[in-house]
Amino acid sequence: MIAGAFHRTGAVEVWGRGTNRVIAMCKKHGAEPPLFEEIQGFVHVTFKAQLVAEGLAPTEPGGQIAAQIAAQVTAQVTAQVAAQVAEFCREPKSAKEIMAELGLKHWKTFQSNYLTPLLAMGVLERTIPDKPRSRLQRYRTTAAGLP
Fold it and tell me: φ, ψ for residue 126 (rounded to 5)?
């Protein structure tokens, strides 16, 4: 359901295709494929420094490729984390509880990358909608966010 929502918004082309495309693009341009690891329920993707160290501007061919690869991987990882948040919030949870479950510490990143998009997509809802900044605010998965 989450993957479908991301597909409809254009954030994900086709579920599961991006990883192979990232590897193929790295090989095509002479870069080592990234390292994909699952650590404590999260996907970690490590790119070799040469893509960053080349110092290519986004307008240069290599810079565009690095930016495209980063965007594709970010969309996939975000979709996976969004699904995890939706599952975790079947019972109302505070933002701090959600961040702890995901192992995140930076509020602004959590808010902009996960919480706000999930609220906008209708996957999560506030338990106190008229007081979004309430210290008692909790977030729960909507019917649209359930599998």
Answer: -80, 145
